[in-house]
Design brief:
Blueprint: E1 5-11, E2 13-20, E3 25-29, E4 32-38, E5 41-47, H1 60-76, H2 86-90, H3 97-114, H4 119-123, E6 129-131, E7 134-136, H5 142-155, E8 159-163, H6 170-179, E9 184-188, H7 198-201, E10 212-213, H8 222-227, E11 235-237, H9 244-252, E12 258-261, H10 263-266, H11 269-281, E13 286-288, H12 295-305, E14 339-341, H13 354-360, E15 361-368
Parallel strand pairs: 7-8, 8-9, 9-10, 10-11, 11-12, 12-13
Antiparallel strand pairs: 1-4, 1-15, 2-3, 4-5, 6-14
Bound molecules: 2-succinylbenzoate and magnesium ion.
């Protein structure tokens, strides 16, 4: 199959509340939305880029340039027999995985639609519902944090992740644990600590956390392997695992107990499945992370999270946790058992609200084969 037409859009879609991590703040989605046409089929995808390159090296502007100058032309020249052909076709471009992922997701949606199957079934999904939680950003004080967490629990979420940083780590985690002794609780440092902080991080040990996510540098595996035996909390890698090779290194070096899989960080669903399978073979659980995606990327994430080794709840909250109005007509709602229902229709299942998408589009670019 040849792709006949590709359209890219830079968007700005405001979040319901500002999201703050150890290294940046975001007030809205700066994603790149992808639309493709082939064989009379229209498919949609998303590169969940941010405003600034503070999570990884990419942002909306770098994605915009690399897609137009390299990735889109390379994809238009490729004859695709399945979505697995996208990653090798773009491999000559180093890194830029989030930009690549937007194209790869869209091609998966295209093939699923062509085969009149759901994306989840095409990926090998086995669950009808996926367990999810909420990632709670850094708050101004502990009373506010307890109120925010309580609000999400009232909505039906049963797993909470707290963003932590030096000065906002042990005490907020203790406060949430004391308020809800049985809550499934985990923390995410987004690469802000150093190996010399090991004793400090061990102060999280008593709080019975599901995991501590990415305490050390965004590109580190070596020091995480040294840190792991110094903590009782299970150690999880996010930023560091950008490819199946990186996952293999982490597993062979015993650098983590758990892997957070975000297909956008890894450059696509194909390599995400490879990591899922490799971790499963090694007896290591994985869970599905999030990048505050719009309803398009969210539907892709839900489909992937339906694979069997996603055994911990994902950072895939319902659309209304992020947006007052999303760019899809069929947002997910949280079920009473803290799950989202995996779409069974054709493709990823998100129905794009093209009028509202037009309203939030900053720039549009289109090219034919
Ligand atoms: O590190 O998991 C992260 C959001 C943006 C960038 C990085 C991360 C996050 C989150 C939010 O934690 C996950 C979500 O709800 O989408
Ligand atoms: Mg993370």
């Amino acid at each position: 199959m040849r792709i006949e037409r590709i359209e890219l859009r830079k968007i700005l879609l405001p979040y319901v509340t500002m999201f703050e991590t150890s290294g940046w703040r975001e007030t809205g989605s700066h994603a790149i939305i992808v639309r493709m046409e082939a064989d009379g089929i229209v498919a949609w995808g998303e590169s969940p880029t941010g405003e600034s390159p503070f999570y990884n090296e990419e942002n909306q502007k770098t994605g915009w340039v690399i897609l137009q100058d390299y990735l889109v032309p390379m994809l238009l020249q490729t004859d695709l027999s399945s979505a697995w052909d996208v990653t090798p076709a773009l491999a000559r471009v180093r890194g830029n995985r989030m930009a690549k992922a937007g194209l790869e997701f869209t091609v998966w949606d295209l093939f699923a639609r062509r085969e009149k199957r759901s994306l989840a079934s095409l990926l090998g999904g086995t669950r009808e519902r996926v367990e999810v939680g909420v990632s709670v950003g850094i708050q101004k004080d502990i009373p506010t944090l307890l109120e925010v967490v309580g609000g999400y629990l009232d909505e039906g979420y049963t797993r909470i992740k707290l963003k932590i940083k030096p000065g906002w780590d042990i005490e907020p985690t203790r406060a949430v644990r004391e308020a809800w002794p049985d809550l499934r609780l985990q923390v995410d440092a987004n690469s802000i600590y150093h190996l010399s902080d090991a004793e400090h991080l061990a102060e999280l040990d008593p709080f019975n956390l599901l995991l501590v996510e990415q305490p050390l540098a965004h590109d580190d595996i070596f020091d995480h392997a040294k840190l792991k035996p110094m903590l009782r909390s299970p150690l999880c890698l996010d930023e560091s695992i950008v490819s199946p090779e990186h996952a293999r290194w982490a597993i062979e070096m015993n650098a983590c107990d758990i892997i957070n899989i975000k297909p956008s960080r890894i450059g696509g669903l194909g390599d995400a499945i490879k990591i899922h399978d490799m971790a499963q073979a090694a007896g290591m659980p994985v869970w599905h992370g999030g990048m505050l995606e719009t309803g398009i990327g969210r539907a892709v994430n839900v489909a992937l999270a339906s694979l069997p080794n996603f055994t911990l709840p994902g950072d895939i909250s319902a659309n209304d946790r992020y947006f007052k109005r999303d760019i899809v007509k069929n947002p997910f709602a949280i079920n009473a058992d803290s799950t989202l229902t995996v779409p069974t229709g054709i493709g990823h299942g998100a129905i794009v609200d093209e009028d509202y998408l037009d309203d939030v589009t900053l720039e549009r670019w289109e090219i034919g084969a």
